[in-house]
Write a structure and sequence with these properties.
Blueprint: H1 14-35, H2 38-53, E1 57-63, E2 66-71, E3 79-84, H3 86-92, H4 99-110, E4 121-124, H5 135-148, E5 151-158, H6 164-181, E6 187-188, E7 196-197, E8 199-201, H7 205-208, E9 213-216, E10 219-221, E11 227-231, E12 233-244, E13 260-265, E14 271-273, H8 280-293, E15 297-299, E16 309-311, E17 313-323, H9 325-333, E18 342-344, E19 348-352, E20 355-358, E21 363-366, E22 368-372, E23 375-376, E24 382-384, E25 387-390, E26 393-397, E27 403-405, E28 425-427, H10 428-432, E29 453-458, E30 465-468, E31 471-474, H11 475-487, E32 493-494, H12 497-517, H13 520-545, E33 547-548, H14 552-584, H15 590-598, E34 604-607, E35 610-617, H16 620-625, H17 629-649, E36 653-658, E37 661-666, H18 675-694, E38 705-712, E39 715-720, E40 725-730, H19 732-747, E41 751-754, H20 755-761, E42 766-774, E43 783-791
Parallel strand pairs: 3-28, 3-29, 4-5, 4-29, 5-9, 6-18, 7-12, 32-33, 38-41
Antiparallel strand pairs: 1-2, 5-8, 10-11, 11-27, 12-17, 13-14, 13-17, 15-16, 18-19, 19-26, 20-21, 22-25, 23-24, 30-31, 34-39, 35-37, 35-38, 36-37, 39-40, 41-43, 42-43
C-alpha cells in the first residue's frame, strides 16, 4: 500500500498562521514593554531624534546676503542667561570669583530708578555653602541680596548621608529655609515613590535669612548618562534616631503629620521602607529579611576587644518635600505660592490662577502666552495681530516620582557674539563690571530686563556641563529649558498606554497580514514604507503637539513580525517542496522534481542530445485474458515498480506509462555525457531483473518484454497546456525508438538499438550484433539496427 501524504491543517497555512504569529508577537512586545526597561530605553533614543529634528530658529532671507533670525515663539522672551563665560573669566580672573563680584551683579539689577521694570527674579546657580575667604565679601553679597529682594539660590541633595556633625548643621540650615518658605504639602499618591536623599547642602544661614526663595537643583540622569528629566519634588530625609530591631514593638507609632517613617539599610546601602502599622507577623518577616540582607551592628561595651552585643538597626526618618528651583522660579513668575500647588503623583502638579506682571501698569494680570507674534509690512503697518492664549491654570505632567520630562528647545547656546543661541546669553561681567553707586539719583532708569527671569551660572568649558539630547549643555541652560517648559506650557505628553498598544497591535497585524499574503520583496517594501510613514507622522505630531507616540515598539515589532512570518513561510515552503518531491517523485525522476522546485514549469522546450527508451510487454492482451482485473493490476504494479526503480538507479528520467509500456530518456533535464551507455546498461539490467521476477511467478503469469533505444537530438520540455503539462521528449528520434521496440517481435530479440546509439557505446565494452538495415514507417532512408546482448563486465 502506498504511503498516504499528510496534508497540513488549514490553520497552519502561512496566510492564516501569519496572523496568529502576529498576535503572539504583539503579546510578546506588550510583555516586554510592561515588565522590562527595553522599550523605555529605545524610546528615549527616539525622543533624542525628535529633539534634533526640532528647529529653534526660523531663518528668513530678507535680501541677498542678509538673513534674519526669528525667535521660536515657544521660547519665553522672559528668560535671560547671565553666563560666567570666557569673557567674564578674562575680565575677573579665575573661577570662583570673590563674592563681591556677585554682589556687584545683584546691585547692578537692583539699582534702577523704574523699580516696576525690574527683573522677576535673579537665580544664582552658584553654591554659597561655605564662607568666603574674605568675610567682608560675604557681608557685601548678603547686603546686596537683602536690598534686591529678588535673589533665589539653590540647594543640592545627595543619597548618601554625611557625618553626623556636618549633617546636623546642614539639616538645621534646611529647617531655617523651610520655616521661611515652606515645603510642598498635600501630595496625593504614594509619597514613597518620590526619590529620597539623606544629605543636603543649603547655603549659609545668613544667606538663607535674606534670599527671596530656594529650591533644589537635582536633575534625573537616565541609564545612558543623559539628562532628560528634572525632579519637581524630592524627599529630604533627616535621620531622627536609630532603634534596635529587637526593641521594636507593635505599639511603636509615628507622627504621620510630620512625615515620619521607618526604614532599614541593606548591605549595599539601599534603603527599604517599613510598612506601618507594625504587627507580630510583619516584625517576624522584617527580622528574617534583615538577618539575610542587613549588616549587623556590634558593640564592645567593656573595651576588651571582644564584641559584647550585636543587633540590627532600624532608622527613624523625618521627610521634607523640597521643590525644584525651576518650580520655585515659575511660581514667583506666576505670583503663586507653594501652598497653592495641587500635586497628584503620576499625573500632575497644578498651579491655579497664574498671573503675569505688567511692567507698564505695575499690576498683575491673568497669565497669557504669545502663540504668534504680530506681523507688519515694510512700512510698519500691522498686518496680523499677535495671537495670545489665556491660562486659568498651569498643569505640569509628572510621573510617579514627580519627574518632569524637559522639552529642550534646541542646542546649547554659544555665548560668543554672533553665536547661535537658543536662549539669549549675556556675559556676567557685562553687568557686574558696571555697578551704579548707592546714590539713587545716579541710577539708570532701567536695565531692559523688565519681568525677566535672570539665570546666572557657569558658561565656560569645563564648568558644570551635562549631557543632554543635544549634547553637552551648561547646567544653567538645562535649568532654563526646564523653566521654559513650565512657563511656556511646552509640556511633553505621552500618548496613553492603551493607545500605544492599539498602534502596536495594528502595525504588527498589518505586517503579519501583508507578509503572509504577498511576496517577500513586496512585503519588505510595504514594511519599510510603513515605518518611514510612521516616523514622519509621529515626528510631525511631536513637532505640532508635543505629543510622544511610542515608535520603537511598533517599528521593532513590524520588523520582527516580517522576519518571523518570512521564516515561517520559508519553513513551510521547504516542507511543501519535500511533499511535492515525495509525491511527484513517484511519477517522474527526482532530478526532474528538483528542477521543478528550482524553476517552475513553463510551456516550451529545448533541443537536447538524449537517448530515448521504450519497453513493452509481449502478448499483454493474451496475458490479461487469463487473469482477473485485480490480479492483472497487482502483477503490473509489481513489474512497473521493478522496472521504474531500475530506471531511477541508472539516473533516467521517467516520461510516462502507456498502459503496460514504459517511456523514459537520458540526457535531460540535466546533461549526461554517457546518456547512451546508461540507457543501455539500464535495459540489460531490466532483463536481469525480469528473469528474477519471473522466477517467482507461475509460467502462465511470466512476463517478456521488448526494448527499443535510439539516440538523437529531439525537443525536451513541458508540453501541453497552461493548466496541465507534461515533461517529455518529442521528435522523429522518439518515434524511431518506439518503432525499434516493436521490431523486436520480427527478429525474436529483446533489445534493439539504433546505429546512433551503437556509435556512442561501441567502445564501452558492449556486446552487440548487427541485425539489418530496415526502413521504418515515416523514414525513407534505411536505418541500421543492432541487438544489444550485454556488456563485457
Amino acid at each position: 500500500m502506498s504511503e498516504k501524504i499528510k496534508k497540513r491543517p488549514k490553520v497552519f497555512e502561512p496566510q492564516f498562521f501569519g496572523l496568529i504569529l502576529g498576535a503572539f508577537i504583539f503579546i510578546l512586545f506588550v510583555f516586554v514593554a510592561r515588565f522590562t526597561e527595553l522599550d523605555n530605553r529605545f524610546e528615549l533614543k527616539m525622543l533624542d531624534m525628535h529633539f534634533y529634528l526640532k528647529s529653534t530658529f526660523r531663518k528668513i532671507s530678507t535680501q541677498e546676503g542678509v538673513t534674519q533670525e526669528q525667535r521660536n515663539p515657544n521660547i519665553s522672551p522672559d528668560i535671560l542667561i547671565l553666563g560666567i563665560d570666557n569673557k567674564s573669566l578674562n575680565d575677573f580672573g579665575k573661577w570662583p570669583f570673590p563674592r563681591y563680584r556677585e554682589a556687584d551683579l545683584v546691585n547692578s539689577f537692583a539699582r534702577i530708578q523704574e523699580q516696576n521694570q525690574r527683573e522677576s527674579s535673579l537665580f544664582l546657580d552658584i553654591f554659597f555653602n561655605d564662607p568666603d575667604s574674605r568675610a567682608i565679601d560675604d557681608v557685601l553679597l548678603i547686603d546686596a541680596i537683602q536690598n534686591s529682594g529678588r535673589v533665589y539660590l539653590e540647594t543640592v541633595l545627595d543619597y548618601y548621608p554625611k557625618e553626623k556633625e556636618l549633617s546636623d548643621e546642614m539639616f538645621s540650615r534646611q529647617d531655617l529655609l523651610i520655616s521661611r518658605f515652606g515645603m510642598v504639602e498635600n501630595i496625593v499618591g504614594d509619597i514613597n515613590q518620590i526619590d529620597e536623599y539623606y544629605s543636603t547642602e543649603p547655603p549659609l544661614r545668613p544667606y538663607g535669612n535674606v534670599i527671596a526663595g530656594i529650591g533644589h537643583a537635582n536633575f534625573f540622569e537616565d541609564y545612558d548618562k543623559k539628562y532628560r528629566k528634572q525632579k519637581m519634588i524630592v524627599r529630604s530625609s533627616k535621620e531622627l534616631e536609630q532603634i534596635r530591631l529587637d526593641l521594636l514593638t507593635e505599639n511603636f507609632t509615628l507622627n504621620r503629620d510630620n512625615y515620619e517613617r521607618l526604614a532599614w539599610i541593606d548591605k549595599k546601602g539601599i534603603s527599604h521602607n517599613i510598612e506601618m502599622p507594625l504587627t507580630e507577623s510583619s516584625l517576624k518577616s522584617l527580622e528574617a529579611e534583615m538577618e539575610r540582607n542587613a549588616p549587623i551592628k556590634t558593640e564592645d561595651t567593656d573595651n576588651d576587644g571582644t564584641p559584647d552585643d550585636s543587633y540590627y538597626i532600624v532608622r527613624k526618618y523625618e521627610d521634607r518635600f523640597i521643590p525644584a528651583i525651576t518650580l520655585v522660579l515659575a511660581l514667583n513668575y506666576f505670583n503663586r505660592e507653594l501652598s497653592d500647588l495641587e500635586v497628584v503623583l503620576g499625573e500632575h502638579i497644578k498651579i491655579p490662577n497664574p498671573q503675569k506682571f505688567n511692567t507698564e501698569t505695575g499690576e498683575w494680570e491673568q497669565y497669557y502666552i504669545v502663540k504668534s507674534y504680530a506681523e507688519y509690512d515694510e512700512n510698519n503697518n500691522l498686518l496680523k495681530d499677535a495671537e495670545i492664549e489665556l491660562f486659568d491654570e498651569i498643569v505640569i505632567p509628572i510621573n510617579e516620582k514627580a519627574e518632569l520630562l524637559v522639552n529642550f528647545m534646541g542646542q546649547g547656546s554659544d555665548p560668543s557674539r554672533g553665536g547661535q543661541q537658543t536662549f539669549p546669553v549675556r556675559p556676567f561681567s557685562g553687568y557686574a563690571a558696571r555697578v551704579p553707586g548707592p546714590d539713587s539719583s545716579s541710577w539708570p532708569r532701567t536695565k531692559a530686563v523688565d519681568n525677566k527671569i535672570l539665570m546666572c551660572g557657569a558658561f565656560a568649558l569645563g564648568l558644570d556641563q551635562k549631557t543632554t539630547p543635544f549634547g553637552l549643555m551648561y547646567g544653567v541652560e538645562v535649568h532654563a529649558n526646564a523653566l521654559n517648559t513650565i512657563i511656556m506650557d511646552q509640556f511633553l505628553h505621552e500618548l496613553p498606554w492603551y493607545y500605544n498598544m492599539l498602534i502596536l497591535f495594528a502595525a504588527v497585524m498589518i505586517i503579519a497580514f501583508v507578509t503572509s499574503k504577498l511576496s517577500t520583496g513586496f512585503s519588505l517594501a510595504i514594511t519599510i514604507l510603513l515605518e518611514m510613514g510612521m516616523l514622519l507622522g509621529f515626528t510631525f505630531i511631536f513637532e505640532m503637539n508635543n505629543l510622544i507616540i511610542n515608535f520603537t515598539g511598533p517599528a521593532i515589532g513590524m520588523v520582527f513580525t516580517f522576519i518571523v512570518v518570512v521564516v515561517y513561510r520559508v519553513i513551510t515552503e521547504e516542507g511543501d517542496k519535500r511533499r511535492i518531491k515525495d509525491m511527484f517523485g513517484k511519477y517522474v525522476s527526482p532530478i526532474v522534481v528538483d528542477q521543478m522546485m528550482e524553476n517552475p514549469p513553463e510551456l516550451g522546450g529545448v533541443d537536447c542530445e538524449v537517448t530515448i527508451f521504450f519497453s513493452d510487454i509481449r502478448s499483454f492482451t493474451s496475458l490479461s485474458e487469463t487473469m482477473s482485473p485485480q490480479e492483472l493490476v497487482e502483477l503490473l504494479n509489481l513489474y512497473l515498480t521493478a522496472m521504474t526503480d531500475c530506471i531511477m538507479e541508472f539516473y533516467g528520467t521517467l516520461d510516462k506509462y502507456i498502459g503496460d509500456a514504459i517511456m523514459c530518456f537520458w540526457g535531460a533535464p540535466l546533461p549526461q555525457e554517457n546518456h547512451a551507455l546508461l540507457a543501455c546498461k539500464c535495459a540489460v539490467r531490466q532483463l536481469e531483473l525480469l528473469k528474477e521476477l519471473n522466477a517467482t511467478l507461475p509460467e502462465n503469469k511470466q512476463i517478456h518484454i521488448g526494448i527499443g533505444l535510439n539516440s538523437g537530438v529531439p525537443t525536451v520540455g513541458n508540453m501541453g497546456s497552461e493548466g496541465r503539462m507534461n515533461y517529455t521528449v518529442m521528435g522523429d528520434d522518439v518515434n524511431l525508438a518506439s518503432r525499434l521496440e516493436g521490431t523486436n517481435k520480427q527478429y525474436y530479440t529483446e533489445i534493439i538499438i539504433s546505429e546512433k546509439t551503437y556509435d556512442l557505446i561501441k567502445d564501452s565494452g558492449a556486446i552487440t550484433r548487427e541485425l539489418d538495415d530496415i526502413r521504418v514507417k515515416g523514414k525513407r532512408k534505411p536505418v541500421k539496427i543492432y541487438e544489444l546482448l550485454g556488456f563485457e563486465e
